[in-house]
Amino acid sequence: MVEIIELLKALILGFVEGMTEFAPVSSTGHMIIVDDMWLKTEEFLGKYPANTFKIVVQLGSILAVIVVMWKRMLSLVGLYNIDGQSKSINGRFNLVHVIVGMLPAVVLGFAFKDFIDDHLFKVEHVVYALVAGAILMIAADKLAPRKPKVDSLDKISYGLAFKVGLVQCLSLWPGFSRSGATISGGVLFGMSHRVAADFTFIMAVPIMAGASLVSVLKNWDTLSMDYFGFYAVGFISSFIFALLSIKFFLALISKVKLMPFAIYRLVLAAVLCVIIFM
Q1: 113: buried, middle or exposed (CB in 10 Å: 19+, 13-18, 0-12)?
Q2: Which residues, at least 6 apart from 203, have a Cβ–Cβ distance to it below 8 Å?
Q3: pTM (2 decimals)?
Q4: What is the mean pLDDT of each run of 10 residues along the chain (278 residues)?
Q5: Contact assessment for residue 73 and residue 142, using Cβ atoms and an 8 Å cutoff
């Protein structure tokens, strides 16, 4: 049976996930930092179940996206009329855009899943990813067109969705940040920060659901019903805290853009370097 102290650890990791999933600072990276340096859930769960938890717990945040953006999610398949427009999905942002955008990361994710699990779920690799992601975000803010060409999801072409999807592949590196990669890519390719963020969150739903399913199936033999309470607490807490943070971030990203988050990443990386290497 899971002890209270272990459930508290799941609650803390759910909090970290929910509050950081939508900011371009890497929720997985933060969970790895908090877990490896303080909580040590690998000692309780084992290596692969602990890694699986860090992926599955993100489903709580993804559920929050569905709750907040349910109208747009239904409109992807023509089941909801956005802003009084026709229900036809032709010529509008639809499910094909999402599939095209997520395809590169899905292919590479399957190809390198074992390598990522075995080698990249470590604090030192997260430090490098934090710095690399910060550089990309700074470049996006500095090099982006002064006036965005794409100020609505419905102006995203299939080609643009694919190019942003290629940049999203960087987020397979834990600590790089999926939202950081895709928002930066979207901004560099002419999207407004808000549109890039919306596209990022919508794409996250099938990607994270698929990643969680793959991780669970791959590590099925190492999982146990004894861990159910641990996983459930992490899922519920990430959902609640994500609901609190998602609308705040969507309003904030249009005002402050990416630079403050890049600076935060660099400061965090510097602090971690001091702790780890000195």
Answers
A1: middle
A2: 98, 101, 102, 165, 168, 182
A3: 0.90
A4: 87 96 93 94 89 89 92 87 58 90 93 88 93 98 93 95 97 94 97 96 90 82 86 96 92 93 97 88
A5: no
CA-based R_g, the chain, Å: 18
Q: Nearest 5°: CA angle at 75, between 69 and 81?
A: 105
Which amino acid makes up residue 131?
A: V
How far, in Å, CA of 53 to CA of 215, rounded?
9
CB 55 within 8 A of CB 223: no
Q: How is residue 34 written in tokens? A: 């908090």
Least Cα distance to 192 among 163, 155, 162 occurs for 155
Distances (CA, A) of 100 to 89, 107, 163: 15, 11, 9
What b/e sequence results for 43-82 when a residue is b if at least 16 CB atoms lie within 10 Å of its CB, and e otherwise? ebbbebbbbbbbbbbbbbbbbbbeebbeebbebbeeeeee
Cα–Cα distance between 3 and 161 in angstroms, integer? 45
Please say whether the beta carbons of 184 and 135 come within 8 A.
no
